[in-house]
Amino acid sequence: MSNDDDTHPAGMAGGTHLLGFSDEILLHILSHVPSIDLILNVRCTCRKLAALCLDKSLVHTVLLQKDYQASEDKVKQLVKEIGRDIQQLSLAGCYWLSGSTVEHVARCRSLVKVNLSGCHLTSLRLSKMLSALQHLRSLAIDVSPGFDASQLSGECKATLSRVRELKQTLFTPSYGVVPCCISLEKLLLYFEILDRTREGAILSGQLMVGQSNVPHYQNLRVFYARLAPGYINQEVVRLYLAVLSDRTPENLHAFLISVPGSFAESGATKNLLDSMARNVALDALQLPKSWLNGSSLLQHMKFNNPFYFSFSRCTLSGGHLIQRVINGGKDLRSLASLNLSGCVHCLSPDSLLRKAEDDIDSSILETLVVSCCNLRHLNLSAAHHHSSEGLGRHLCQLLSRLRHLRSLSLPVCSVADSAPRADRVPAQPVMHAVPRGFGKKVRIGVQSCPNPFLGQTVPQPSSVFWSLLKNLPFLEHLELIGSNFSSAMPRNEPAIRNSLPPCSRAQNVGDSEVAAIGQLAFLRHLTLAQLPSVLTGSGLVSIGLQCQQLQSLSLANLGMMGKVVYMPALSDMLKHCKQLKDLRLEQPYFSANAQFFQALSQCPSLQRLCLVSRSGTLQPDAVVAFMACCLQVVVCHMFTGESLATCKSLQQSLLRSFQAERPALNVVIFPLLHEGLTDVIRDVPMVHLDEITLFKSRVAEEPPNLWW
């Protein structure tokens, strides 16, 4: 990857890449191809294959990240056989490997790039390993409690002085290795520091700031910081930003800070932003909402060829979006990714006089579509974007012009036809927040349907949503999330017991719209949340039959809350999901019984399962039988209404039965409303917590190809 293209990495430069083939196929290819770049999965590490690769000097890149079959012995064997030729190695997310095994990376002396995020490493082991990697230019590590920079040797610091790209995940207040990286051009920081220790002691975000501790940002081109909830993460990131405010790097072209909630602007950050407005032209920008709300900052910022903007949760009006970002219709063909999640006023001319439920101004969206015609990732979730009646002016009709889209996140209400369709039975509002012990709510005014698959299941050609998906046949990632949806399981606080009712327009989106998704033959990731008018879930069967590339599925609060109406359809769908790896289900009264697990057992590729059900139940024998049948499953997270004793017993049984054969096995079974949930969550490996356990919109969450 060239230095001139840090934020647009195209993967591994040149050559042919092979990933995940069987030993036999790879042996055949390698026997007939004289020169090849090989991306090798650890499952293909037989001795004959390794020897052939070694003889041909072919192995440049090895990706073991999240390869849950990578045992200690296999990793050691791989490094021993072909380590000397590996130039790029990723062990990201291999949390089950011991530090002594990870230390074997030191034998790969030709390494230029190494990703060890999620791996266990002490300061001393890190020092020993980096001392041997003199060619290293790109590094990703975790900084955990107990890290001590004074234990890094001179040889280690010499290696770090040549590192140009650093990704650092902080679990403790620290600069980590940043002060040693004096040649940094790209810095990615993930702040995952908890405010309190497990014993309840309050942590301090203050660091010892001396001359040797000051980061060196003079060559920095990309600065990215993502903060988990908590005040201490904000305290520590301010220390990183303080150095930037003194002197803004003249080559800075991507500045991104992702913060949940509010993050007050300080004098130092104001100086930094003023300096950036004067001295740099950016290609990517994301700022905390409090820094942008009511500010004229965007008016003064200069942009070169922007490829990523995120204004998530900002009170940015459509007028400001057009005037200050798009410059009244300026050509932004370079823009590849745009995140307007939670920007409730971004498609209306004025935010002061508008109610959230008012219709959008379609001319603003049209200007956006015309100016940003090459968008590949667009997030409009967490807002009410209602279209008025008018030929060709519906949001779905305008978005259908963005033929390059590969990922799209929309609020459920935005895909409803402007006027209720004659072919749909009106659905009454659904009661949510069902108290425990008061029985289940009954939907009123909906015709009964003896056969669950005789309902309105065929997508209607007249539907604007059907037409949108027809015009975006190469969409790979789709999210339909209710405007008022919030997961029952937030990050660092107790579970949410109540939820807001869905938007009234979402009542017009049901099984027909879900069935329309079946048009997307290349769909890999699907999220459906808070669709109250799903009556039978029959549209799910269409998706299972036609979306054969589907790898991750997240369903939350479909249909009525007091009963899981889509269980037969989901069971039928799962029979066809041969590529499904991740399944997340969130439903208040979900019964994880034998029928469900029998259906799930027909997904041979399944690796991760997460179930969140406030009043849900488990059938322990069915869970054990499922785990015994599905040998690839390494993540089983279930947060239900079962007792603590039942949960602990099942968790211990699963670990006792399957841990030895599956080194990556991570089992968490716990009552969702238990006060100890926060302490349980903190022990979940970050790779699972971030990707499946916690619900969030992932479209345009980060710039594309932020890290290799």
TrEMBL record:
The keyword Kinase does not apply. GO terms for cellular component: SCF ubiquitin ligase complex. Residues 23-64 form the F-box domain. Pfam families: F-box-like, LRR_FBXL18. GO terms for biological process: SCF-dependent proteasomal ubiquitin-dependent protein catabolic process. Keywords: Ubl conjugation pathway. This is F-box and leucine rich repeat protein 18. The lineage of its organism: Eukaryota, Metazoa, Chordata, Craniata, Vertebrata.
